[in-house]
Amino acid sequence: MAEDSQRVGGCAERGVSLFLVALSLVAILGAASLAIDLGMLYVARSQAQRAADAAALAGAAAFINSGCTTAAGGCVAGGAQESLARQQAENVGDENDVAGEAASIQDGDVSFSYPNPMEPQITVTVQRTVARGNAIPLLFAKLFGATFGSVSAMATAEAFNPSGASVPVSYGCVAPFLVPNCDPVHTTPLSSTCAGDSAGYFIDPSTGDVAHPGAYSTGVIGEPWQLHSNAGPSQWYLVAYNTNLATEISSGNSNGNGQSASLLRQYISECAPAEVSCGQTVSTFNGTSVGPTDQGIDARINASADGLGQGQDSIDTSVGPPFPITGGSNNPDPSLVGQTYYGPSPSGVLVPVYDGHTLNPGGDTVSVVGFIQLFIQDVVHQGKSDLINAIVLNVMGCSSGGDETGDSGTPPIAATGGLPIPIRLIRTD
Known about the structure:
This protein is α+β, with helices and mostly antiparallel strands. The chain has two domains: 2-159, no CATH class; 169-421, no CATH class. Helices cover 24% and strands 24% of the residues. It contains four helices and 21 strands. The protein has helices spanning 2-66, 80-94, 261-269, 290-301, and strands at 97-98, 101-102, 110-113, 121-128, 136-137, 148-149, 151-159, 169-171, 179-180, 224-227, 235-239, 276-277, 281-286, 314-315, 325-326, 340-341, 348-354, 365-382, 385-397, 413-415, 423-428.
């Protein structure tokens, strides 16, 4: 009888154990499904943030292409730069996936603010939410009544023209041309450094501000400029980059520490792997180097030969800024060939500005007082000159008395990709 009681009790215990195991499996499966869905949402949130960051930075770059960061009144609410920035942000958003679908940024997801007319900001929100109708389907949580999950992310970026501000900036992808701070179109106030010329300033040397902001002809945006003109005996407004791929710093060597003409051509046709900072001292390249200059420019702008209409992009300065660009037949992006767009273009270059004094024959050193972004239209070989015809797109001045590290000794803000004005994320959420 005792044995029968034990057998009955054992069966009962085994039944309870099976029940507890089954119950535990349900709990474990529930936790596992929750972890899988939460992990998927976490990844989607990270993807949304990356998409928002990329879109905001792309929109900020459009501020620069519009020219409003060097305009007389700066960037203003409702200006032409907003449609360009919004379109660019949406295009970049579509190139980023969030949980397997394009970020799909809409007009209402983009907003603008202007704490400073020369410091426009764009905010982009990326959403995959129930309210938007594009929420993320959950895999296992639907077993517990949760069908969709929502994620969103926001980023704010700005374009910052540091002209006149005590903010150190360094620039990458600087073409090895020098521009004297001598504006032949705007002669008031008359320059004190452009000896023998009737010229004003691009950059006010007392403040570092753009001397004549705004559109040509009252301002500098759209003003024609010709590079590689004769600056004096053996001097043609060229910067020397040395053989270890850094800019020459007061080398005293008249030919840029042995720089060859082939290196000059290379650094014209593509980005030189060195940064140039406000206040930096650079050496001039001795001689004309007309062949490498001509070849380098044609390669840079994708022109098959010298002159206009050789496959390079063209620019229309009769309207704008912003100035519409038409993609040439040799544009490396097939989708831009024959199409009108607003940059950036392969024909865009960034060049340093120096004070404008007459360069000494046999080599000289100069101090960088600012930078100018140019659109190169063409190059024409003429005697000892390679006449490089360009249009001014933006001007950035260095703060008066500024140096490579700024007053506080902090490292400079880096502006990359040949942009004359840094763009940076100032908020992510």
